[in-house]
Design a protein that fits this description.
Largest sheet: 4 strands, antiparallel
Order of helices and strands: EEEEEEEEEEE
CATH class of the largest domain: Mainly Beta
Number of domains: 2
Distance between the termini: 50 Å
Number of helices: 0
CATH topology of the largest domain: Immunoglobulin-like
CATH superfamily of the largest domain: Immunoglobulins
Strand content: 35-45%
Helix content: under 10%
Number of strands: 11
Length: 161
């Protein structure tokens, strides 16, 4: 294990494994969050010629994304709802997508108008909703959360529309 490509600065194993072995477990190696670690495998033939292969790296991500801010989007059409957000971040594996839904402010169950929907990495959404679920004058709100590269999530407070 190492912190740089083709290196060997953290953990070195001096084992002579047969060619039929396709995996090897290493334990108790201190891996710090937010750093990329690489592993190397060196293969030798009977004449001593060798080749080294290096992994594409792994990262320990121990924190969920940081919550961002939101802006209220008012629509002049009772069948549209919109929301925008910014400032979500994840210093380790990064934000991979946002999940968004719509509910009435008085909802007893979340997302009673439009269920959770993956809006990829967009920071703004405006969608058609089924307005038959909304009584005249009833407030509607959006919910959004971010997912990072390993699936941690961070919810954002409601966004009134």
């Amino acid at each position: 294990m190492n912190l740089f490509f083709n290196g060997h600065d953290i953990h070195e194993v001096e084992l002579d494994l047969p060619g039929s072995i396709t995996s090897h477990n290493i334990s108790r190696v201190p891996l710090s969050p937010g750093k990329v670690f690489y592993s190397n495998v060196v293969g030798y033939n009977y004449s001593g010629i060798h080749a080294t292969e290096t992994s594409d790296g792994i990262m320990v991500d121990s924190q969920p994304p940081v919550t961002g801010m939101h802006d209220t989007e008012y629509e002049n059409n009772s069948k549209l709802v919109g929301a925008s957000w910014h400032g979500f971040s994840d210093r380790d594996s990064g934000i991979t997508n946002y999940m968004w839904c719509v509910q009435t402010k008085s909802a007893t169950l979340p997302c009673d108008i439009r269920d959770w929907e993956n809006v990829v990495i967009h920071h703004y959404v405006s969608m058609v909703i089924n307005s038959s679920y909304i009584n005249t004058g009833e407030e509607v709100e959006s919910l959004v959360y971010a997912l990072d590269g390993i699936g941690y999530l961070k919810h954002r407070n409601q966004m009134a529309s």
